[in-house]
Specification:
212 residues, Rossmann fold, seven-stranded mixed beta sheet, globular
């Protein structure tokens, strides 16, 4: 799986496919969630959430785990262009599945349109490892796509997701072929769902979880 080839096109493709929807989901709970000191961002892509976080939380230090070198270079360029201090971000270009907390603790975890890259077999272990890096009371912001329970919304979401997964399979070699809802694993890891906002007839969501 490699997003390098897609990195230069990801921004305009997101806008063409979803308009402002995905950024609304990423940032919905950011302002009301208070100030953060240490944040862990996974699979951040071109860094639209990262930039907003740096601007709204001027003192936050960030660890950003991203496998694609092209995505990391894009984030660095955006930070510099915005006049923000790149030394606030520790970029770790690696597979999130190999990342270990090693005693580090974060009061914010953020995974936006990222947990959908994993199969059920790998997702639980990943969530457990990330949860081990959460400090007491930590916030975990999750946004992603979802399939509504019934009706035309369900069939539309299924069709759109089929298109998306096929597209990412062809362009990046993504091995996940279906959406696995991560909520059950966050609960198991000790997080409680505090708030949730559905978007686009239930096709996308933004969630705020807290470690209890
Ligand atoms: C669908 S994109 C989402 C990007 C961004 N978070 C967003 O909100 O649009 C998935 C991102 O996760 C990264 N990624 C996928 N699997 C990964 C893994 N196992 N470890 C680290 N990064 C990964 C990809 O390189 C890509 O940048």
């Amino acid at each position: 799986m490699n997003f390098d080839r897609l990195a230069p096109h990801y921004g305009w493709m997101e806008l063409a496919f979803a308009g402002p929807l995905m950024q609304r989901c990423r940032t919905h709970f950011l302002t009301e969630s208070g100030r953060f000191r240490r944040a862990l961002l996974l699979g951040e892509g071109r860094g639209r959430f990262l930039l907003r976080l740096m601007k709204t939380n001027p003192h936050v230090r960030i660890t950003c785990v991203e496998k694609s070198g092209a995505m990391v270079r894009c984030m660095l360029a955006k930070i510099k262009k915005s006049g923000l201090d790149p030394s606030r971000v520790d970029f770790q270009q690696m597979d999130a599945l190999d990342w270990r907390a090693r005693g580090r603790r974060y009061d914010l975890l953020a995974t936006h349109f990222f947990l959908d890259c994993f199969t059920a077999e790998t997702l639980e272990g990943l969530v457990m490892e990330l949860a081990a890096a959460a400090s007491p009371g930590a916030t975990w912001l999750v946004s992603d796509f979802r399939v509504p329970d019934r009706g035309w919304r369900k069939w539309r979401a299924r069709a759109l997701l089929r298109l998306l997964y096929d597209f990412f399979w062809i362009t990046t070699g993504l091995s996940a072929r279906n959406l696995v809802p991560p909520g059950q694993y966050l609960r198991k890891a000790g997080f409680r769902l505090e708030d949730r906002r559905l978007e686009n007839a239930g096709f996308a969501y933004s969630e705020r979880w807290t470690l209890i």
